[in-house]
Structures are given as C-alpha cells and as structure tokens.
Amino acid sequence: MKRNQRILLASAALALMLCSSSALNAQTRVTVGVTETIETYNPYGDSVSLLYGIWSEVTGPFCTYNYAKGDFEGRLAERWKVENPTTWIFSLSKNYKFNDGSTVTADDVVHSLMNRVIGDPQSKQKASVAPSVVKAEAVDRFTVKIITDKPTAPLLSFLCDRLIVTSKAVFDKYGRDAADKEHMMGGGPYRLKELIPGQRLVLEKRPDHPDAKKHPRAPDEIVYRIMREPEQRVTALLNDEIQIAQFVPPHMRQRVQSTKNLRITPVDSVEIMFLAMQPKPPFDKKEVRQAVCHAINRDQIISTLLQGEASRLDGPIGPGQYGYDPNLKPKMNYDPEKAKKLLAQAGYPNGVDVELQTPVGRYTLDKQITEAMIPMLNAVGFRAKLLTPEWATLWANVQKGTIPFYYMGRGSVQDPSAALHQYFHSKETPRIGYVNPKLDELLDKEQQELDPKKRRQYLSQAMSILTDEAPACFMWRHKLLWGLNNRVDYKPLPDARIYGIDMAVKR
Amino acid sequence: MQSLTLESATDARDAVRAGILPRLHVKAFTGGAIVLAFILVGLFGPALAPLDPNKQELTAMMQAPAGIGSAHVLGTDNLGRDILSRVIYGSRVSLVVAFAVVFVSGFVGIVLGAVSGYFGGKVDFAIQKLVDVVWAFPPLLIGITLMAFLGQGLFNLILALVAQRWIPYCRVVRGQTLSLRGRDFVAAAQCLGASNRQIIVRHIIPNLIQTSLVIGTFAMASSIIAEASLSFLGVGVPPEIPTWGTMLADARIYISTAWWLPLFPGLCIFITVLGINLLGDGLRDLLDPRLKRTGAKI
Amino acid sequence: MTSYLARRLAGTIPVLLLISLLVFLLIHAAPGDPTLLLLGEETNAADIAKAKAHWGLDQPIYVQYGKFLVSVAGGDFGKSFKYAEPVIGVIKSRLPATIELAIFAILIATLMAIPLGVWAGSKPNSWIDNLGTTFGLFGISMPSFWLAIMLILLLAGVLNILPTSGRSTYGIAGPEQTGFYILDSIMQRNGRAVWDALTHIFLPALALGINMLGILMRVTRSSILEVMNEDYIQTARAKGLRENKVVWRHVTRNALIPVITVVGLELGTLLSGSIIVETVFSWPGSGSLLITALNARDYPLVTGLVMIYTAAFVAINLIIDGLYAIVDPRICY
Hints:
heterotrimer; A: alpha+beta; ten-stranded mixed sheet; 18 helices; 20 strands; 35% helix; B: 11 helices; 0% strand; disordered N terminus
C-alpha cells in the first residue's frame, strides 16, 4: 500500500474510532420533575413512594413487583420460600457489589432490616416495610431468614421495592450520619452522585453492574428535580428543562400532547379514593351511609372535572390490584331517588346536616371534586357543608378518629391487605372506627392465609361486606398522567416509583 | 382642630383659584369613584349578580367569557359557576375584611404609637417590647396557627390579619411623634395648661393624619392581598364563601389553559387596591395645610 | 443615645425569652401531632408511643420548655423531628438562599424605587410623577404569588429566556462554599455559574421585590412631597440654590426618615414573607422551610427559626433607631 493511502486509512480508522468513542462517551441524562420533596440524606428517613423507588434503585432493589406479569421478581434477593407460616427464607444473588467492590451479603440485609428500618428511632419506614417482622438472621453468607410474629401473606409487598440494603461495614466504621451523607453505598445499578435536600437528587449509572449491562440504553445520569407547582412542571417539560414530568393535571393534557416531541402516558394509579364515614349519628345507620354512596354521580365527576382521567371503583379495589373481583356486589351506582328513600327510611325524611372535610392540594383536584359533591349530597336531602382544613390538622384528627366524614386517598394499594386493615379492622386504627366482628375475622384470616386461592376468597368476602355496609364510599382511582419527551422510552408504574433502569434514551 | 379645618378650607379655595385643585381633585375623585363603586357592588351584590355564585354546572365548566348579553358574561370556572356572580359576591368579603382590619389595627396602632412616642420612658419601653415580640413572628406563622387553631371563618381571618397589622402604624406614628414632641406648638400648648391627653388628641394626632392615611391605604390594600395569600396557603375562609383570594388560589393551576379564571379576580383586586390608593393620595394632597405655599410651580 | 441603645440591647433578652415561650405555646396549642405526621400513614400506637418517648414529647409542656431553655443557653436548639439533624444545621443550610433572595429583592426595589420616588416627588403632577405613581401602585396591588406565576409563564414559558425554578442548573454550578451561589461562583471564577445563578435568582427576586418597590416608591414620593413644602426648602430656593441640589442635599436627607422606617419594616417582611415566593419558585430557603416545619409540627425547627428571625428583627430595629438619630438631629432619646 502506498504511503498516502496508508495515512488516509489510518486517519479514517482514527476518525471512526474517535467518532464512535465520543458517541459512546456522550453521556445521556434524563431530568425528571417530581412533586415529592427529597429532604434528608438518610435513606430510611422518609416513607414516600418516590424515594423508596430511588433508594431501592441505588441499593438493589431487594425484589420488585412486575406489573406486567402481576407478580414479584427477584433482584438482590433472587428467590425465596416460605419455610413455615412465620418464617421466610431469602436467597441472595452473589453478583451484587457495593460501590467499593465489596459484595452485598446477608449481614448487610440483616443489619439494614433490624438496625436501620426497625431499630433506629429516626427511621420512618418500620410500619411500611417491616410491620410484623420480629427477627432477621443470616443463615449463611447469602441466605437470610426472616421471622414474623404472625403469618404474613403480603410480606413481599412490604419488602419488595421497599427494603433498602445499606452496608453494615460502612455503618460500623463511620457511624450513621457520616455513612449516609458521605459514604452512601449501594448494590444497585445506579449510585448516588449528588443530593441537595429540597432541590435535587442525581443518580449515576454504574456501567459494570449486571442490570446496567442488561439495559445499555438506560440513561447515564438521572436528575430528580423538585417541582411542586403543576404550571411550573409543565412549562419545564415544554422547555425541555425536564424530560419527564410527574402528574400532569388532566386539564393540561392537551397542552402537552399538542407539543411536538412530547407525549402523555396515562397510568392507572394504585391509590384508592374514598369518602369515609364514622359510625356516629347520622352515619351510624347503614342506610344513611348507603345514601351517600348512591348520591354521588361519580361518572359525571370523572367525565367533567377529571376529563375522563380516572377509573371508577365499584368496591375497594379495581382491575390490576390483588384480589380484584369484578362481580363484587352490591354496586353502589348513582341513584338519587334510592338515596332519598334510604334517607327517609333511616329516619331523616327532612334531611340532616353533615360536614364533609377534605385536604387541599394533596390529591388531584381534591377541593374541586368535593365542592362538586356538595350539591349532589344536597339534592338527596343532606344539608352538606364543606370544610378545607390544613393537611396537618386534618391528618392528625383523622388519626385520632375525630373527623366524622372525610375525603381521603390511600396509596400503594397494590395488595389491599394493609389498607383494609388500617381503615376497617376494628382493632387497628380509629380512623373510621367501624366495628364488624365478621369483617375482622375475614381480614385476620386473609392476612395469615398463605394459599393464594383461599386468600382471594377471604378478600372477596371481606370486600363484599365492606361494599354493602359502606363505612366508606369508594370513588375511583386517578389515572396519573405522565408527560414524557419522545427521546425517552419509559413506561411509568402505577405507584409513584421511578426506576431509571427501565428507561431507554434515544441517542 | 376646628381652626385647622377652617384653614384648610380657605387654602382649598385658594388652591382652586390657583388651578391646582382640579388636578388633585381628579385623583381623589377617580379613586373615590372606584371605591364607591365597589362598596355599592358589595352592598347590592345579591341584587346585581345574575346567578347564584355557588351554583355548579359541571357540564358547563371552563367556558370562556361570552360577553355582555350572554348567560355567562365573564365565563365559568372549573365547576361551572358563573364568574361574574362570584366576583360580585367576592367583593363583599374582600371589602369587609379590608375595612375591618384597617380600622381595628389602625386604631390600636395609632393610639399605642402616639402614647409610646409622647410619653417615652417606661411606657415607650413596654410598648416597644410588645412590638418587638409580636413583630418577630413571621406574619404567616401567626396567620396559619391562628386559623388552624380557631378554624376557618371570616371573624377568625380578620383576627389573624389584625394580629400584626397594627404595628406599622405604631412604629411610624411613634417616630413622627418623637420628632413632633420637641416642636414649639407642643411646648406652647403645655404652657397654656393643656393636659397630656388633650395634647395628644388635639395636637399630635392631627399632624399624624397624613402619614396614617398613607399607611391606612397601604394597610387596606395589603389586607386584601393578605387574604388572597392566606387563601393561597389554604387557610382562608371556607369554600362556600367566594372571595377573590380563593378564586385566585383555585385558578392557580389553570393559568395557562383558562386565562379568564385568574384574570378577573386578579383584576378586581388590582382595580380596588388602585382605587383605594388613589383616594388616599388625593385626600392627603387635599388636606395638606401647607399646600398654599407651593405656588404655581406645581 | 448610646445608653438608650445599650438599654435596648439588654432588653432583647427578655424579648427573646418571651418569644420562645409564645412560639412554644402557639405551636403546641395548634392541633396536629408531629409523631403522627412523621411516622407516615401506616403506623400504629406502639410506634407512636416510642417515637414520643424518644423525642421527649410525652412529658408535660413546662418540662419540655425547661429542657429547651437549658439547651438553648448552651447553643443547642435540639434536633429537628423531620430532618433528624441539629436545628442549627438545617437552618444554616437554608438561610443563605433566603438572604441572597432578600438582598436581590431589596436591590431591585431600592435601585428603582428611591430615584423614581424622589424624581416623582420633586416634580408633582408631571408625567414622571404619574408614571412613577402608576408603577408604584402596580407593585403594591399584586398578590406576589399571582405575579410570580405570571412571570414564570411569561418569561420562562412564553419567551423561554429564564429558568422556571430552583437556584442553579445541575452541571454548571460548582461546589457550595458559603451557600451564596453568586458569591461562590465569583470566588470560583466560574463565569458561567455566575450567569446561571443570576438567571435563577432574577424572577423570584423580581416577584419578591415588586411589592416592596411599590411601597418604597410611594413612601419616598409622599415623604419628598411633604418635605418639599417645608419652609427651609423655600429658603434654600430663595438663596438661589439649583433645584437639583435642593432636592438631593436638603430634601432627600430629611425625607428619608419614614423611608428608613419602611425599609426596616419591609426587611422583616421580606425575610419571613418570602414564603410564598419561595414556594412558587421551589426556592430552597428558610421561608419554605418554615412552611414545611409548620406543616410537620416540627417544634424544635419552628422555634429555632422564629428565634433566629427575632434576633434579626431586633437587630434591625436597633439599627433603624440608630439611623433615625443620625439623620434627624431633632430626635433625642
């Protein structure tokens, strides 16, 4: 080959190499606008869906719920089995390594569960992650035994996507605060790059991680920016300041969809919205409660206020949630005539005064929705008034059991057990204070029944009673609207969790 | 006091002759007309409003303004309620709140400020201590806590707004009293045997009227805005009372999709406040006893 | 006067004590239990009791207050319930953002208001006066959150020249040193970061400052008007002094008294009243921190924040009084 040709070839090869390497080196970054605030360095210091997702991505996740399959999948915990009703054995994968190269072992899991989630008074996660866990111990380097105080069928829904596994060695060496703030390490596909409380959280992909290798198009960097005002989030999405906007309000859907390069992905949320009624006069009578349920024209609210972005609930849960029974009876459909009759039957032919309380800005259009409910209630004979107390006050009073009638949502209801127990079991919380021994019995049974078929039966029966007795009127599940830039391929999940590894960025 | 009025009346006549008065008159007149209009709308609201402000029509929601002659002149809001009617009813609440807050806080503040500045010493010390303590609270903290504790309601809202609003009056009035205290006419009055109370009421306070008027107009305006802010944070009056502030707060998420929702209540606040301030300005210019010395230069 | 100021200074201690007591009582009186709010939806009675014992909330209120006073005397404001970090640390991390915002708001307000006010006041009823008055009226007639959102929509949304929220763009700003981003960027000689920080602070400062601008302009103008009509101004004119000199040398100094009061008062409002602006712009300052703390009934944090504000306000008041005496020799204490 002539000298010039050789030089040309070499230059071409060099240029090709440079081009491809620079293409490879071009970092992809996805910025997400979120509504939840990120306030602390302590991964166990918050009990919020979004943060469970983020920290789980940094540290595992321990296991994960695959919505498409409708079942749990292993990650850090590869497999599990139930040894006896109160003992679960989790086998860990050997391939998960912390950022410093050390392997994630059973000791780390035990330490995280016992010392950080349960034992640390600053942890806010005990009730959501390990409510019935008594003990965890390392059987061997990669096997963990978890013992619960009573049979807990939904244990996986507490641990998966929620248990955050941090390094015991780092904790022992530096102490908790320094370990969290300066030496945060996890075994997950992303590492924590930067955290400015109140502003943003930045994750960086770990290219050597097995999950990262399986998803080469996942973004190299993910920036979570706190943007609580919807107008602001949508504007930022339109400006390409962010590529994913959480929770676009229904009336802004058009604006996003009509913009080039943007799209809306609606997702059925697993948060159930309901009207709770305490069994004190006038709601001590079942007929009055049922009258409330029949008085609300849910379809009209959904089609007008929510612009169709909600699925009506004809029971405590809907399609996709564990234990859903489409044939649940009775159906509390919109029937104002029936409501009037029920009210008269209950002894209030001339109506009765009630006060509905609602938070403001906590749930989608909560105030507008409840404002729309007032004339509906009035039309069947109630004399309804709406109160909009501050969230802190309202929540405190709900917990104490002093609010007779309120609009509320319960999130993360992928398995209804926890929610049903909280609100309707007579021995758990005073939020509603409904007492029904048969219901209690069914709820206890379902929680401890490890045979899925039997468990579903118990759940069905329990939810039947609930719908008929109506200590709460179940309204709908909102369709969460995610605004996405077409450069990002991502299927949002029904709860507010975001897993960056599932994103694919078009280069 | 009577002599002052006579003087200013004479001055006013002179000022008219000098050609100055019409200009000042315009300001006060415009402002006064605006304020009067809103007071009248507030008083006769129920008769003026075409529809019930709380009547919802979910199928007719978010309709753009259709102009005069149509069913919904200013359009409908996110629950299908007529905006014109809501704005009319909203004027009632805003004005009641504004007037009540200003009069109560003004009275308390001016009295305490004048007393504090005039007597000095221990009285001044005690009152200023109170000022320091109360003023140190972030205004919204008192507002939110009071509203959370007492519950939503018009009376509670007024109380929450007055809690700190008397202080600006107090401080500024005290400052001016301090400088007036050493002036000749006070010494003269004392020589003539006037009591402290007489001196304060007859001599010091009238001289403070201008400043008080200016503060008063600010305060009225700021009360209307403060009510909107408290509503924004969700601790205003309960939802069945339409107020401009609540309407603005509700409209927050519709600004880019339904411009008329935040525009009209915002416009009402703006025009009302503008009117109040114009009136205050005009009044002050009219009552200034030294106006006669300005000559034709103005 | 020095003895007066010294007395006032000594008097701040009982003020601080009184305030801490009042805040304590107010916060505890407001309904809402911090443990319930903090432990999340899915908690139970046993955990609540444990958390209460851990935070010392199960003890009678005078015991809690006593413990608080003792620790404050030692410089420790306790640990925040929500952030689980020392209160001082939490506040320190957020205060620079608010101070920076306040400084810029004041800059915008005074740089525009005082010259405009003097100009308008010295030429009453001219077109300048009318323009200035209208401008001032505009400023005070807007609820700040409405203005904030309109600004975002216009400048960030429609015109797309400014960012919508936050203090800095990820990837441009350098590490935090003082907490004042603009200062940090200058110290690090990072020109891009300076510009980035400035574009982020502009809208919130404008929204925050416009209210103050309106007030300041009006007070300046009205004060100038009053002083312009005084005899000694007439005398100065009669002496043949140029109008400019009359205005700036004689009028302005005397007219500044109420203006100083207002600036002082407004400083206080700015520091605490930036809550709404900070919320709308996701500005991580102490105003939004206060709202978060209040909503979480985070007693130590709220008390700490109010105490710090108090100290600031008392200091400001003292300075204002001192300035009074300097500017107006007729005032004697």
